[in-house]
Amino acid sequence: MAVREQKVVCCCLLLLTGAVSQRPTVDYQHPVCAVTGSTLTILCSFTPLSLVKDGKRVLVEIIRVVWCQNHEICHLTTPSVYDSELGHTGVKDPRYRYLGDKKGNCTLQITGVQRGDNATFRFRMEAKEKANHFTGRAGVTVRVSDGAQMEVHSSRDGQFKTGEAVTLNCTTKCTFHQLEVTWLRDGHALKHTGPSLHLAALTAMDSGNYTCRLKNNVSSLSKAFSVLVEAEEEGSVQVSLIVGVVSAVLILLCFVILVLVIIRQKNQSAVRGEAGPKAEGAQQQEEDVTYAHIQFRASGSQARPVEDDSIIYISVVARG
Fold it and tell me: CA 24, CA 106: separation in Å to the nearest integer?
């Protein structure tokens, strides 16, 4: 019975201990490979020791972070590649850049990778109390490849037509980030320095053998990748040009004819508008003259009989 009670007490103590604090952790990415002259980013995250205060779980404040090389603890006088207490940059060698913080991100970046970077890197966090210091002993191992040959891969085959597009990628078997490469066409360096070379609206001038290499490593030159752009036949180019010119002339001619028709219609409308009142006045005058003429003739034909009757009447009276 006493044994059972003792076991229950131990279990309760363990549970209480787990509830009061939680051990810190450091998580690294898998072992990586880097090419000399490239830029390597070591992804890393950490969680400080957590304690329960006033019923709430809080993280211990971290006041110092360190990255060291080939050392299991990274404490005291251990040579470091980054130390937050060394000032604003925290590094002795500017090739190492700390991209993290003191909250949970411990990412480290190495530019211009060298053979000396072929090592195991570890991260250490330190709090106000020494008991809360912690080093992620698992670390991350970096394997540096010197003289690894680059490779050129294409999004399509090496034969293209004029006007098409293609993207060439400069790669290597190692994992790397922000790779700076030199692109060459037929041995002549191009201005582009990124790992991907995009060629848009291809012409015959883009044809050639493309190679790439690391900017600071001549021995990493890749094998040539041939790009062949088929030029359009001269006859087809001339036919296309003639068709285009004729089409443009016809369109222009139709436009001119349309403008002339519109102008002519406007002029005719204006002339009709001015001649309308004059034509009506002339027509009215003609009608008046005709009416007067008819009336005159009618009056003349009736006058004679009246005059004759008057003469006869006068004559008869005189004889009686």
Answer: 13
